[in-house]
Write a structure and sequence with these properties.
This protein has about 300 residues and is α/β, with parallel strands linked by helices. It contains eleven helices and eleven strands. It has two domains: about 80 residues, no CATH class; about 210 residues, Vaccinia Virus protein VP39 (Rossmann fold), CATH 3.40.50.
């Protein structure tokens, strides 16, 4: 059953509407989740539905209204059918921003936050210098928005092949008051073509599709049944297809400026294979880095200096 098939929450209902009874009721209704995850989900549901923090609920002796219980029951039904909490709430947290998400876009992950944080560190020595920054495969716009929030002087572009994703990203930018230039763009269809957006960029960031189709059956259905598969999976025949295209464009088609930076999030089992795609003559440095779970997940590469034409 999909979210659209569930229109109203169903009983049984809590014994009373006070905070303690409602928490126990929620605990029983989503018992399929592990204890720590369940408590985190309940906290977020109550924060969202009540509109106040846990501390304020305790101080103010919060009591749920009938409409709030209805919303909570509906959310539990959707959770039990596998829908991710972020889609139910409509938002995900990313680098201090509340980013609206829906089934047209991936839910931003902490690993992607790390990619942005570390790329910002690589260029921290030139904080005041205006840069052209491009996010390839923008999705919800999380990378573009976080970058613009940290470096408002930069000219930021977000590219995606999905019109629905771009609509979501654009709405996020408008709501957050961040000026991003969004473009519908299929990088795999632009080989050899002159590209005005992807031209002389100072920074290119991308979290492209990288999961081989063969891994899909072993993944959680809350991911495969709900998040956009086109943003997750690639053919087993060429799982590095997006990395090949991005690296080629940056190295030989003018996407990246002289001594510009490229940041890539990768499959933890493919980082070394991606690193081998970089040809030494085009790059000043190519570094792979681990995420907070000690998995190799990121590559940061600086374009070699390009000799000026006399």
């Amino acid at each position: 059953m999909k979210a659209g098939d569930v229109h109203r929450g169903r009983g049984p209902w809590p014994k009373s509407n006070d905070a303690v009874a409602v928490r126990q009721w929620l605990t029983d209704r989503i018992a399929v989740f592990e204890s720590r995850e369940r408590q985190a989900i309940i906290r977020q549901l109550l924060d969202d539905v009540s509109g106040v923090s846990r501390a304020d609920r305790l101080i103010g002796n919060w009591v749920a209204s009938e409409s709030q219980l209805e919303r909570l029951a509906l959310a539990c039904d959707r959770l039990n059918h596998g829908e991710p909490l972020q889609y139910i709430l409509g938002t995900a947290h990313f680098m201090g921003l509340d980013v609206c998400v829906n089934k047209s876009v991936l839910i931003p992950r902490p690993e992607t936050e790390e990619l942005v944080h570390r790329m910002l560190q690589y260029i921290s020595s030139s904080k005041s210098q205006k840069r052209k920054v491009v996010d390839i495969g923008a999705g919800s716009g999380a990378i573009s928005l976080a970058w613009k929030a940290k470096r408002p002087m930069d000219e930021v572009y977000g590219l995606d092949v999905s019109p629905e994703a771009l609509h979501t990203a654009s709405a996020n930018a408008e709501r957050l008051g961040l000026a991003i230039d969004w473009h519908k763009h299929d990088i795999l269809a632009s080989v050899g073509a002159k590209d005005t957006v992807l031209s002389a960029c100072d920074v290119v960031l991308s979290n492209p599709p990288y999961i081989p189709e063969s891994e899909k059956s072993g993944m959680s259905r809350s991911v495969t049944d709900w998040e956009p598969n086109m943003a997750l999976f690639v053919s087993d025949r060429d799982p590095l297809v997006f990395y090949k295209r991005i690296i080629l464009g940056c190295a030989t088609e003018g996407w990246l400026s002289s001594e510009g930076w490229l940041a890539l999030e990768c499959h933890r089992d493919a980082v070394e294979a991606v690193r081998e795609l970089f040809h030494q003559e085009h790059w000043k440095t190519v570094e792979k880095e681990r995420d907070m779970q000690e998995n190799w997940r990121m590559i940061f590469a600086q374009r070699a200096a390009i000799a000026s034409k006399s």
